Protein backbone atom coordinates (compact mmCIF):
# COMPACT_ATOMS: atom_id res chain seq x y z
CA UNK A 1 0.00 0.00 0.00
CA UNK A 2 2.90 2.35 0.68
CA UNK A 3 4.14 1.67 -2.84
CA UNK A 4 0.73 2.50 -4.28
CA UNK A 5 0.60 5.73 -2.27
CA UNK A 6 4.10 6.63 -3.44
CA UNK A 7 3.21 6.01 -7.08
CA UNK A 8 0.00 8.02 -6.80
CA UNK A 9 1.70 11.05 -5.29
CA UNK A 10 4.58 10.81 -7.77
CA UNK A 11 2.10 10.80 -10.65
CA UNK A 12 0.07 13.71 -9.29
CA UNK A 13 3.27 15.71 -8.71
CA UNK A 14 4.90 14.82 -12.02
CA UNK A 15 4.03 18.20 -13.58
CA UNK A 16 5.33 21.10 -11.49
CA UNK A 17 2.90 23.44 -13.28
CA UNK A 18 -0.10 21.37 -12.23
CA UNK A 19 0.35 20.81 -8.50
CA UNK A 20 -2.85 20.91 -6.47
CA UNK A 21 -2.50 22.73 -3.16
CA UNK A 22 -5.34 20.63 -1.74
CA UNK A 23 -3.39 17.36 -1.92
CA UNK A 24 -0.62 16.65 0.57
CA UNK A 25 2.83 17.14 -0.95
CA UNK A 26 5.20 14.16 -0.91
CA UNK A 27 8.86 14.97 -0.24
CA UNK A 28 10.30 11.47 -0.52
CA UNK A 29 10.33 7.88 0.69
CA UNK A 30 12.78 5.58 2.46
CA UNK A 31 13.04 2.06 3.85
CA UNK A 32 14.43 1.25 7.29
CA UNK A 33 16.92 -1.50 8.09
CA UNK A 34 14.02 -3.65 9.30
CA UNK A 35 12.21 -3.32 5.98
CA UNK A 36 9.62 -0.75 7.04
CA UNK A 37 8.62 1.67 4.30
CA UNK A 38 8.05 5.30 5.21
CA UNK A 39 6.81 8.28 3.22
CA UNK A 40 7.84 11.84 4.11
CA UNK A 41 5.37 14.67 3.49
CA UNK A 42 5.70 18.41 3.77
CA UNK A 43 4.42 19.56 7.16
CA UNK A 44 1.43 21.65 6.10
CA UNK A 45 -0.69 20.63 9.08
CA UNK A 46 -0.93 18.13 11.92
CA UNK A 47 -4.67 18.07 12.46
CA UNK A 48 -7.36 16.26 10.52
CA UNK A 49 -10.98 17.16 9.86
CA UNK A 50 -11.87 14.45 12.39
CA UNK A 51 -9.69 16.18 15.00
CA UNK A 52 -11.40 19.49 14.30
CA UNK A 53 -14.87 17.96 14.63
CA UNK A 54 -13.93 16.23 17.90
CA UNK A 55 -12.36 19.36 19.41
CA UNK A 56 -15.32 21.51 18.38
CA UNK A 57 -18.02 19.16 19.67
CA UNK A 58 -16.21 18.67 22.98
CA UNK A 59 -15.85 22.43 23.38
CA UNK A 60 -19.62 22.84 23.16
CA UNK A 61 -20.08 20.72 26.28
CA UNK A 62 -17.97 23.18 28.25
CA UNK A 63 -19.40 26.39 26.82
CA UNK A 64 -21.98 28.35 28.77
CA UNK A 65 -24.38 30.88 27.25
CA UNK A 66 -23.09 34.44 27.34
CA UNK A 67 -26.06 36.33 28.75
CA UNK A 68 -24.22 39.65 28.47
CA UNK A 69 -23.69 39.26 24.73
CA UNK A 70 -26.64 37.63 22.92
CA UNK A 71 -24.77 37.89 19.63
CA UNK A 72 -21.83 35.82 20.83
CA UNK A 73 -23.39 32.46 19.90
CA UNK A 74 -24.47 33.70 16.47
CA UNK A 75 -20.98 35.05 15.79
CA UNK A 76 -19.34 31.76 16.76
CA UNK A 77 -21.78 29.84 14.59
CA UNK A 78 -20.95 32.01 11.57
CA UNK A 79 -17.24 31.38 12.13
CA UNK A 80 -17.92 27.65 12.33
CA UNK A 81 -20.01 27.63 9.17
CA UNK A 82 -17.32 29.52 7.25
CA UNK A 83 -14.60 27.19 8.52
CA UNK A 84 -16.55 24.05 7.55
CA UNK A 85 -17.37 25.44 4.10
CA UNK A 86 -13.70 26.28 3.49
CA UNK A 87 -12.73 22.80 4.66
CA UNK A 88 -15.20 21.06 2.36
CA UNK A 89 -14.38 23.29 -0.61
CA UNK A 90 -10.68 22.46 -0.30
CA UNK A 91 -11.32 18.74 0.09
CA UNK A 92 -13.60 18.68 -2.97
CA UNK A 93 -11.04 20.65 -5.03
CA UNK A 94 -8.44 18.01 -4.19
CA UNK A 95 -10.81 15.20 -5.13
CA UNK A 96 -11.75 16.86 -8.43
CA UNK A 97 -8.05 17.23 -9.25
CA UNK A 98 -7.54 13.51 -8.67
CA UNK A 99 -10.52 12.58 -10.84
CA UNK A 100 -9.34 14.91 -13.61
CA UNK A 101 -6.05 13.00 -13.55
CA UNK A 102 -7.65 9.53 -13.63
CA UNK A 103 -7.17 8.73 -9.97
CA UNK A 104 -9.72 7.73 -7.34
CA UNK A 105 -9.13 8.33 -3.64
CA UNK A 106 -11.19 5.36 -2.35
CA UNK A 107 -10.72 6.09 1.35
CA UNK A 108 -12.07 9.61 1.68
CA UNK A 109 -13.23 10.55 5.16
CA UNK A 110 -12.67 13.09 7.94
CA UNK A 111 -9.37 11.45 8.92
CA UNK A 112 -8.03 11.76 5.37
CA UNK A 113 -8.31 15.56 5.25
CA UNK A 114 -5.36 17.30 6.92
CA UNK A 115 -5.68 20.89 8.17
CA UNK A 116 -3.12 23.57 8.92
CA UNK A 117 -5.31 24.99 11.71
CA UNK A 118 -8.36 24.10 13.78
CA UNK A 119 -8.89 27.65 15.04
CA UNK A 120 -12.14 28.89 13.55
CA UNK A 121 -11.02 32.52 13.80
CA UNK A 122 -8.26 31.61 11.31
CA UNK A 123 -10.68 30.12 8.81
CA UNK A 124 -9.55 32.53 6.08
CA UNK A 125 -6.09 30.93 6.17
CA UNK A 126 -7.36 27.34 6.30
CA UNK A 127 -5.70 24.99 3.79
CA UNK A 128 -7.33 21.54 3.65
CA UNK A 129 -5.31 18.80 1.95
CA UNK A 130 -6.18 15.22 1.03
CA UNK A 131 -3.93 12.46 2.34
CA UNK A 132 -4.08 8.66 2.77
CA UNK A 133 -3.84 7.80 -0.92
CA UNK A 134 -2.74 4.21 -0.21
CA UNK A 135 -5.96 2.82 -1.71
CA UNK A 136 -6.00 5.15 -4.71
CA UNK A 137 -7.06 3.50 -7.97
CA UNK A 138 -5.89 4.33 -11.50
CA UNK A 139 -8.99 4.67 -13.71
CA UNK A 140 -7.15 5.44 -16.91
CA UNK A 141 -8.54 3.24 -19.70
CA UNK A 142 -5.18 1.53 -20.20
CA UNK A 143 -5.02 0.58 -16.50
CA UNK A 144 -8.64 -0.43 -15.96
CA UNK A 145 -8.91 -3.68 -14.01
CA UNK A 146 -5.21 -3.85 -13.17
CA UNK A 147 -4.02 -4.07 -9.56
CA UNK A 148 -4.98 -6.03 -6.47
CA UNK A 149 -6.23 -2.93 -4.63
CA UNK A 150 -8.84 -2.26 -7.32
CA UNK A 151 -10.26 -5.81 -7.55
CA UNK A 152 -13.00 -5.17 -5.01
CA UNK A 153 -14.06 -1.96 -6.75
CA UNK A 154 -14.38 -3.61 -10.16
CA UNK A 155 -16.28 -6.56 -8.68
CA UNK A 156 -18.79 -4.16 -7.18
CA UNK A 157 -18.97 -2.32 -10.48
CA UNK A 158 -19.72 -5.55 -12.35
CA UNK A 159 -22.33 -6.54 -9.77
CA UNK A 160 -24.00 -3.16 -10.31
CA UNK A 161 -24.24 -3.83 -14.04
CA UNK A 162 -21.18 -1.93 -15.28
CA UNK A 163 -19.60 -3.92 -18.10
CA UNK A 164 -17.72 -1.52 -20.38
CA UNK A 165 -14.59 0.41 -19.32
CA UNK A 166 -16.58 3.65 -19.54
CA UNK A 167 -19.29 2.30 -17.22
CA UNK A 168 -16.75 0.94 -14.75
CA UNK A 169 -14.91 4.25 -14.73
CA UNK A 170 -18.18 6.09 -14.07
CA UNK A 171 -18.97 3.66 -11.24
CA UNK A 172 -15.58 4.31 -9.65
CA UNK A 173 -16.02 8.08 -9.79
CA UNK A 174 -19.54 7.75 -8.38
CA UNK A 175 -18.18 5.59 -5.56
CA UNK A 176 -15.69 8.32 -4.66
CA UNK A 177 -18.42 10.96 -4.85
CA UNK A 178 -20.54 8.86 -2.46
CA UNK A 179 -17.64 8.93 0.00
CA UNK A 180 -17.42 12.70 -0.49
CA UNK A 181 -21.13 12.96 0.29
CA UNK A 182 -20.63 11.13 3.57
CA UNK A 183 -17.76 13.51 4.39
CA UNK A 184 -20.02 16.49 3.71
CA UNK A 185 -22.72 15.00 5.95
CA UNK A 186 -20.16 14.36 8.70
CA UNK A 187 -18.88 17.93 8.62
CA UNK A 188 -22.42 19.33 8.43
CA UNK A 189 -23.43 17.48 11.61
CA UNK A 190 -20.57 16.55 13.94
CA UNK A 191 -18.94 19.99 14.50
CA UNK A 192 -22.40 21.40 15.25
CA UNK A 193 -23.31 18.67 17.76
CA UNK A 194 -22.39 18.32 21.39
CA UNK A 195 -19.90 15.50 22.01
CA UNK A 196 -21.56 12.11 22.33
CA UNK A 197 -24.72 13.03 20.43
CA UNK A 198 -23.56 11.67 17.07
CA UNK A 199 -20.57 9.89 15.54
CA UNK A 200 -19.58 9.06 11.98
CA UNK A 201 -20.84 5.47 11.96
CA UNK A 202 -24.18 6.39 13.54
CA UNK A 203 -24.60 9.24 11.08
CA UNK A 204 -23.91 6.99 8.10
CA UNK A 205 -26.45 4.42 9.33
CA UNK A 206 -28.96 7.18 9.94
CA UNK A 207 -28.57 8.51 6.40
CA UNK A 208 -28.50 5.14 4.67
CA UNK A 209 -31.05 3.15 6.68
CA UNK A 210 -33.41 5.65 8.29
CA UNK A 211 -33.50 8.49 5.76
CA UNK A 212 -32.47 6.32 2.79
CA UNK A 213 -30.25 9.14 1.53
CA UNK A 214 -33.14 11.63 1.58
CA UNK A 215 -31.25 14.84 2.36
CA UNK A 216 -34.46 16.83 2.92
CA UNK A 217 -35.63 14.41 5.59
CA UNK A 218 -32.20 14.62 7.20
CA UNK A 219 -32.39 18.43 7.27
CA UNK A 220 -35.83 18.27 8.89
CA UNK A 221 -34.44 15.94 11.56
CA UNK A 222 -31.56 18.32 12.10
CA UNK A 223 -33.87 21.32 12.54
CA UNK A 224 -35.90 19.46 15.19
CA UNK A 225 -32.92 18.11 17.14
CA UNK A 226 -32.20 20.51 20.00
CA UNK A 227 -28.68 19.23 20.51
CA UNK A 228 -27.63 20.28 17.01
CA UNK A 229 -27.06 23.82 15.83
CA UNK A 230 -29.04 24.95 12.79
CA UNK A 231 -26.89 24.87 9.64
TrEMBL record:
It comes from the Eukaryota. It comes from Aegilops tauschii subsp. strangulata. This is Protein kinase domain-containing protein. GO terms for molecular function: ATP binding; protein kinase activity. GO terms for cellular component: chloroplast. Residues 1-231 form the Protein kinase domain. InterPro entries: Kinase-like_dom_sf, Prot_kinase_dom. PANTHER family: PROTEIN KINASE SUPERFAMILY PROTEIN. SUPFAM superfamilies: Protein kinase-like (PK-like). The lineage of its organism: Eukaryota, Viridiplantae, Streptophyta, Embryophyta, Tracheophyta.
Amino acid sequence: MALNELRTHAFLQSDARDICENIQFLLGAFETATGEQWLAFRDDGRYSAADYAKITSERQLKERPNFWNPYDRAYKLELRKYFVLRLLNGAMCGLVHMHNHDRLHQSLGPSSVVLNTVAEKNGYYLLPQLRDLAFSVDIGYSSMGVGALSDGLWRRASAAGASTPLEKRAFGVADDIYGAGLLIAYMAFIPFCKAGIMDGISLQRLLENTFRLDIYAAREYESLEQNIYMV
